[in-house]
Amino acid sequence: MRGDKLDSRKSLIAAIKRPFSAFDGFVSRLSDWLIDWTPFILVTTYYIVSTAIYVFCSYQQIKVFYFFYMCTNFYIAMTCVVEAFLAMTPIREARKEAFRIEGNGRRFPSPDQELPMLDLLIVAYLPNEKDIVKDQVHYALDELAYPKNKIRVNLLYNTPAPIEPLETELHAMAEQYSELRVIKVPKSKSKADNLNHFLTLETDADIISIFDCDHFPHPHNPRWAAERFVADPTVDIIQGRCVVYNTDETFYAKMIAIEFDKIYATSHPGRSRMFGFGLFCGSNGYWRAGVLRQIRMDEFMLTEDIDSGLRAYAQNKKAVHDLNVISYEMAPNNFAAFWNQRLRWAQGWTQASYRHMPLVWNQPPSGKRGLDQRFGILSLLLIREMSYYLVTQHTCLILSFIITGFPSSPAMLIRLIFFEYPLAEWFLFFTVTCLIITLAVTEMVRSEFTSWRAMLAFAAIYPFYLILSATMGLYAHARQIVKYSSWNPTARS
């Protein structure tokens, strides 16, 4: 009898809780929906309201806005040109050094026994990279031209659910290769968790390198980095050049490959010369082990790599960009993957910019930060974030022109967009010239996986790409406002 009463009581309690559980589920789904769609609503409203404001502005007000936005566009273009020109020196030096090593029978200056001990980390999220992880590990073990007694390959992976027989096969590889360690990171939810777990382990490495799972480092990649550390004891971080190799798959990959050539071969080294500091960008990066163990990764940042690089810079650590430290990686092959990746990057940059803005006025623990570095930080963190609004506001202004004076022919549309005012043609001329010069320097160093045809296509769509990037920046700001924090890994294939 007592058992029947207990069963009845449990049934009654369950019946009472059921409506509340259903309500809690509804509230949770509604909350997720609001977090997902509020940024879209905010950005859409931003575009509509901004365009409407320009529609109702007076002629003189529009003229002021127009010239202001043309000036800011010219500033952005000029910055790219200066970076490209300044990059020519490190480009020339990297080529000279590469030709010297090639002409010397690929013999590097340092004897093998004097090279630093290296821990090479491959960071993987298995559900996303289960189809490529074994190939990447085999490549690192078999193809990298670095003394076997001086390198350890470490696979750091996390997975929400066991994946068999893959996991068993990976651990079997560790038994086959003495220089391989396979580490499943418990309770990990991100790349930062994986890295931080490794940094708690005891190793005798002098240098730690970090690679995403889709990377194929050039066989001499670790040797170039090691030689740079040996040659310059003041260097704490080396960021190598990332090259997209899957350009034969989709148009997206072709365009991203050109973009990466521009960023890693011209913008990064050029900006480093202009402002006097480099930056760790996440993959194909080398750290002195002690520095990385001190800095670690912040698992709450969406771009933990940029955050760690800026925290290292705040402590006066020296980061350099080396164009001979080359690694090949995959680009997203569809718009959805591209969108998720760039939104995560954009929101991560927003978080890092907000956190590290005090670098503009603070001094490092030792040494002194000059005006060039302060302006460089201001440009990197504040002006870059503001550029999203400058580009999109200019776009809204052009949309208002089309609404108020809808063109009847393509020629009228071009005149409306580019030649509305007498000085506009000069701004257009100088801006286009800056773009051509920037791409001309990029053409000098573009990878073997791209072509001049792809370069022309990139130049043609570049204005539209800037608008898309600025829109994603606004979207990232909106996500930050609603505290969106999902970490969406990039799809691999």
Automatic annotation (TrEMBL):
Molecular function terms from GO: glycosyltransferase activity
Keywords: Glycosyltransferase, Membrane, Transferase, Transmembrane, Transmembrane helix
Name of the protein in its database record: Glycosyltransferase 2-like domain-containing protein
Entry's Gene Ontology cellular component terms: membrane
TM regions (residue ranges): 37-57, 64-88, 418-442, 454-476
InterPro entries given in the database record: Glyco_trans_2-like, Glycosyltr_2/OpgH_subfam, Nucleotide-diphossugar_trans
SUPFAM superfamilies: Nucleotide-diphospho-sugar transferases
Pfam families given in the database record: Glyco_trans_2_3 (PF13632)
Subcellular location: Membrane
Keyword Zinc listed: no
